[in-house]
Structure formats: C-alpha cells, structure tokens
Design goal:
The chain is α/β, with parallel strands linked by helices. Helix content is 34%, strand content 15%. The protein folds into two domains: 116 residues, Aspartate Aminotransferase, domain 1; 255 residues, Type I PLP-dependent aspartate aminotransferase-like (Major domain) (Aspartate Aminotransferase, domain 2, 3-Layer(aba) Sandwich). It binds pyridoxal-5'-phosphate (PLP). Pyridoxal-5'-phosphate binds next to helix 3.
Length: 400
C-alpha cells in the first residue's frame, strides 16, 4: 500500500501531515546541522532548550494563553493526568483552605463520556478522604443505561456549593460527545450545548472568579492532532505551581508535581524530545496554512459534510447516530450501521477503499470516524462519496 491510497481516520495516535513527517525524518538523522539526530541530542543541550521554548511560544501565541498560565510538557498521557489532577488540585485546596476537613474538599466531575468517567474513578481512588460529586452522569440518559448519547440539560446539573475543583472533558473521543460551543456541526440546526460556565460556583479563594472560569488546568494528549504519542501538554494557572519546600511530606510523585515541572521549564526529568520536535513542526505547518482560525473553519466544514450524509443515511434507515444533535463531536463521529452483518460490511468495504481506523472503540463498538486536522477536505469528500454509495446500495435502505 502507498500512503496516498490511505485515508487514516484513526482516533489516536492519528494521521500527521506528510510534509511534517518528511521533515521529521531528516531531523531524525541530522537536527539543524548538528550532525546528530533529534533523538540523540541531550534535553539539556542549547538546541533542545530552544526547541522547548519555541514550542511554548507557538502554542502560547496560537491559543492566546495569558501570562497567568505556564505551558508544560510531560510524559504519561491523559491517563497519568487523571491521577495528577487529583493530587495537584487537592494540594492547592489544602494550601488555600488548611482548616477544612478532607470531607469538605469535594471534587465535582461532569461525566459526559468514557474518559471523564475514568477521571472520576481515579479521583475516587486517590482522593483520600475527599469525596467525588458526580455533577451529571450522561449514562443515565442513554437507551441502555450504559452508553453515552447526550449531556443532561445543565439546569439538571448538581454542582456542590464549594467544590475543590470542577472537572470536565471538552471532547469525549470514544463516545463522540463534545461541548459544541465553537463551531456547530449540526445539520438540522439544533442548538449547540456549550459548557455552562455561568452556572459554576464561585471560588472562595477569589470570589470574582468562578471555578474555573479561566481554567486552572487544561491537559491534552498530543497524539490527537498535534504530534506523536508520548507528549502531554499542560496549561497550568500559576496558583497551582507551588512546589513544597524540600523534605516536606507530599503524596504527589515528584515528576507529577506541576510546581516542580514548571520550575524546571519541563526539564525536571527527560521530556518526550522527539514528540515535542514533531509537535513543533506540526504547529509551524498549520501556522503556514493560516493557523487555528483556518483549521477551525475547514474542520467545521468537514464535520458538517459527514454529519449531513449520515443524517441522510439515518432517514433511509441505514445508520443510527449515537449522539444527540447539538452534543456531537466535530472530531470523532460515532454511529451504528443497521441490519444483520451490515456494519461488518461497511467496515470491510471501507477498509478495501483505503479508509483506516473506522471501527468504533473496543469498549463501545459501532463505527467511529476521526477527522483530525491532518485529514484533508479532499479525503473527507472521498469518505462522503463512499458513505453515500453504501447508503444508496444498502439492502435495508428505505425508499425516500
Ligand atoms: C479525551 C481523552 N482523555 C484521555 C485519554 C487517555 O489518554 P492516554 O491514552 O494518552 O492516557 C484519551 C485518549 O484516547 C482521550 O481521548
């Protein structure tokens, strides 16, 4: 198979722009004329320290990250952050409110999909005496009581009065659920559901600020959209960055302590050097194509085209969308193909036509199409043509 014959719709690790991979291949052999490949350079070398700073600069500029926050690069993936979040945010809460009991350090989790559910489980495990409050549990609204198909109306959410922190996942990649506030991918015009920041309780440490209107922490695994696996990007507000004095007892493993990592400019221990290099190349590549605004516009169009053909398939009784309109992810589109053996046929015919990674996550089944940045609009047009042909030739299709 040649690369050009494949449309890689995998949910992560995911496709990267060819031009970036070609450049990265050169950097693997000889990075910036050092005579050494990027993976052979010390993370303490001047060249790598510059790369670390350049990556922070480009992320800061494109995401408009204010100087109240630091950008950190760590290993361990989203899953390690499920643990690190609990330990670091509870440590912050103990620092600001030393006289509260552990039972009063309530952690509010908004469970909209498989990942926020996992985050909440980890908080239960690591919270010590601090309890977890599930603000809303999307599972209870699904047909089988186990899946995630929609987010409850925010009027029904139950925040605790004084949470230590509020946790939510903006885009649930397994289930295909997103707080759809930025670009609506809705075909029918359903109202998009944004995260209801206005309902958040006030932070007693700073009553002018709701928790966490300017987020205390954002984390993202690079393997979706930004680069190879191995790199996790953290955007951390400065009131979380207080390393304890040496020898003070702490339950935070030292390389997971945001204060320690920040003090060392992400070089407390060896960061994922190659993944950071490729991330920088990816960001420069998309900057050259117009930056985030252009990406958002193109991605909105891509999602809209795929949802439109799937809604047509739904009207003809060939597919069933998994997620309620207005709550659907722009990046990870999930659905089922109806009829005995039809889903397997969709996947095998799609695979034969070069579409890869289209099977749903092993925990939920179905079909999942991930339209990350490096999936081009031309590839999406090819995908839409395939889906349309499948629908129109399906034995289970109703006449329109
Ligand atoms: C939203 C979200 N959270 C967490 C994770 C877990 O990330 P990792 O596999 O890097 O631990 C993923 C990965 O698929 C994800 O998409």
């Amino acid at each position: 198979m040649h690369r050009e014959e494949i449309t890689n719709l995998t949910a992560g690790p995911s496709t990267l722009p060819l031009a970036v991979l070609e450049q990265a291949a050169k950097g693997l052999l000889n990075y910036e004329n050092t005579g050494m490949g990027i993976t052979e350079l010390s993370h303490r070398s001047a060249e790598f320290v510059k790369l670390d700073n350049d990556l922070q600069e480009i992320l800061g500029r494109h995401l408009h990250i204010p100087d109240t926050h630091s950008i950190l690069f760590v290993q361990g993936g989203g899953s390690l952050q499920f643990s690190a979040v609990v330990l670091n945010l509870l440590a912050r809460h103990r620092r600001f409110f030393p006289n509260l009991s552990e039972e009063e350090r309530v952690m509010d989790y908004v469970v909209t999909g498989s990942w926020s559910a996992k985050g909440a489980e980890e908080a239960e495990r690591l919270g010590g005496g601090a309890p977890v409050n599930i603000v809303q549990n999307g599972r209870t609204l699904s047909r089988d009581g186990k899946s995630f198909e929609q987010i409850a109306d925010p009027k029904e959410w139950k925040f605790s009065p004084n949470p230590a922190f509020v946790y939510y996942c903006e885009n649930e990649t397994v289930d295909g659920i997103q707080f759809d506030g930025v670009v609506s991918s809705s075909v029918s015009g359903a109202a998009p559901l944004s995260f209801p920041f206005d309902l958040l309780p006030r932070d007693p440490a700073d009553p002018t600020r709701s928790v966490p209107l300017d987020h205390a922490l954002i984390f993202a695994g690079a393997q979706k959209n930004i680069g190879p696996a191995g790199l996790t990007i953290l955007i951390v507000r400065h009131d979380l960055l207080h390393p304890l004095p040496p020898k003070t007892p702490s339950n935070i493993p030292i390389s997971m302590d945001y204060g320690v990592v920040a003090k060392a400019n992400s070089l407390y221990n060896t960061p994922p050097t190659f993944a950071m290099y490729v991330a920088l190349l990816v960001l420069r590549h998309f900057e050259g194509q117009g930056g985030i605004q252009v990406l958002a516009t193109v991605n909105g169009r891509k999602a809209h085209k795929v949802y439109a053909v799937l809604e047509y398939g739904e009207q003809r009784g060939v597919v069933r969308m998994r997620v309620k309109d207005g709550h659907r992810s722009h990046m990870n589109i999930t659905f089922e193909v109806l009829g005995e053996g039809e889903e397997a046929r969709f996947i095998s015919e799609g695979t034969a036509k070069g579409f890869r990674g289209i099977k749903g996550h092993r925990s939920v089944g179905g079909v999942r199409l991930s339209l990350y940045n490096a999936v081009t609009e031309d590839q999406v047009d090819g995908l839409v043509a395939f889906i349309l042909e499948f629908i129109d030739s399906s034995p289970s299709a109703r006449k329109t």
